[in-house]
Amino acid sequence: MRIIAFASGKGGVGKTTIVANLGIALAKQGKKVLMVDTDLAMANLSLVLGMETSPITLNDVLKGDAGVWDIIYDGPEKVNIMPASLGLQDTQRLDLSRLPNIIKQVAPKYDFVLLDCPAGIGEDTLAAMASSTEVFLVVNPHSLSIADALKTKMAALRINAKPVGLIINMYAGLKGEIPEKDIISMLELPLYGIVPYDEEVRKTFYYKKIQPVIIRNSNAEASRSIVGVAGKILGIEVSMHKESKGFFAWIRSLFSKKSEE
Amino acid sequence: MNLFSKIAVKILGLDNTDLPVEQINYLKDISKGYNIPDITKTNFSEFVENLMGKHIIDGFVVFKENSLLYSSSSEILEIANKLYDMFSAFKKENKILYFNIGSWVSMFEKEDFVYMIKSEARLSEFELTAIAKDISCHGKNVFLEEYKKIMSFVKV
């Protein structure tokens, strides 16, 4: 049983999207997966998974108003979800110190428990990292994200949590992006995968029913990369390639297709 | 960028971005500077120094059953003497008592020891638990030895 916290420091790097899709990718490999939204103030995980509002949430358990087994819901591809509340009033009088025990209680039923951490290194993020057996950092290839990820890694080490890996998200292949070798050397963590910037991911939020990209379009570049990350987490090495964009890349692709034929 | 350049960039998929080299170098320097010391028990004074460096704290005091076992400085011991009675009067199981005396003093009981931690920032329960774990993991034997000495003295 592995309890993995996904943290970034900076908001908007795509943590929740990575957690949602990775959870499904692991479930497709036959693993029992629970995803927990530990972003108690700005919960999004259930929305990304296209779930309807959940009447009882992790916020209620942390307030002592509900039991832990009451807040486990069925999600897509047989994953289980422990959502947080979408309401502002539910962010008050939460006893965060209970989170590690709540996670410990449910974890033995699963192969993987994925914790979607809030942005920042506040008490809620520390609570999630303290509940985990390992921490993954999700970063975008720019200096703002890396600076925040560095602080997050240090905060994790100070509470004796274990940062073990790195996922680079929204990699667009631009010259101005910090190369992966530099990101790896700055954060001193092994790379578990590069998930490219993919319009297909953004589009998943603009349908009548939101669905993670790995379900809506399993052939999308981002979906395939996330399957690669899942493989690496499971100990299977999957090679990934980067596709360049633009007119010349298109011309090149025509020739390469011809030569393949 | 004029209109034609914009169109050219869009159609030809040109990449007009550039690496922020200065920022990268700055981050690399920060990354090197972020050095979390290893907590080892080889040398006790080294352990205390590393512990305070790792957790960014100004000092700590350890008690057991109203007996002082260790204090990282005489200044913090003075604060501890002033606050210990108050802590004893108000303490609750698994609860932390915070005192704001310009900096923060956190007092709590964990596995038979009472810890007092002084820090610039108000530390969360998770940070304090980690500090207590590190202190207990590497200093427990030293503290218990001290406790035995105190107890034998009391008996005499």
The CATH topology of the domain at 59-155 in chain B corresponds to: Beta-Lactamase
What is the top-level CATH class of chain A?
Alpha Beta
Q: What's the total number of strands of chain A?
A: 8
First and last CA, distance of chain A? 46 Å
What structural category do the secondary elements of chain A indicate? alpha/beta
Oligomer: heterodimer
Query: How many domain units of chain A?
Result: 1
Q: Which structural class do you get from the secondary structure elements of chain B?
A: alpha+beta
CATH class of the domain at 59-155 in chain B: Alpha Beta
> At the fourth CATH level, what is the homologous superfamily of chain A?
P-loop containing nucleotide triphosphate hydrolases
Describe what you observe in this structure.
The complex is a heterodimer of chains A (261) and B (156). Chain A has 261 residues and is α/β, with parallel strands linked by helices. Chain A has a single domain (2-260), classed as P-loop containing nucleotide triphosphate hydrolases (Rossmann fold, 3-Layer(aba) Sandwich). Helices cover 39% and strands 16% of the residues of chain A. Chain A is globular and about 60 Å long. In chain B, helix 3 runs antiparallel to helix 5. The longest helix of chain B has 31 residues, at 125-155. In chain B, 26% of the residues are buried. The interface between A and B is medium-sized, with 35 and 29 residues.
Q: What keyword list fits this structure?
A:
heterodimer, A: 261 residues, alpha/beta, Rossmann fold, 11 helices, 16% strand, B: 156 residues, Beta-Lactamase, 5-stranded antiparallel sheet, 5 helices, 20% strand, elongated
Give a short synopsis of this structure:
The complex is a heterodimer of chains A (261) and B (156). Chain A is of the alpha/beta class and 261 residues long.
Can you lay out the helices and strands and say which pair or pack?
The complex is a heterodimer of chains A (261) and B (156).
Chain A: E1 2-7, H1 15-28, E2 33-37, H2 45-48, H3 58-63, E3 73-74, E4 80-82, H4 99-106, E5 112-116, H5 123-131, E6 134-139, H6 143-158, E7 163-171, H7 180-187, E8 191-196, H8 199-203, H9 213-216, H10 221-233, H11 247-260
Parallel strand pairs in A: 1-5, 1-6, 2-4, 2-5, 6-7, 7-8
Antiparallel strand pairs in A: 3-4
Helix pairs in contact in A: 1-10, 4-5
Chain B: H1 3-12, H2 21-33, H3 44-55, E1 59-64, E2 67-71, H4 74-90, E3 97-101, E4 103-110, E5 113-119, H5 125-155
Antiparallel strand pairs in B: 1-2, 1-5, 3-4, 4-5
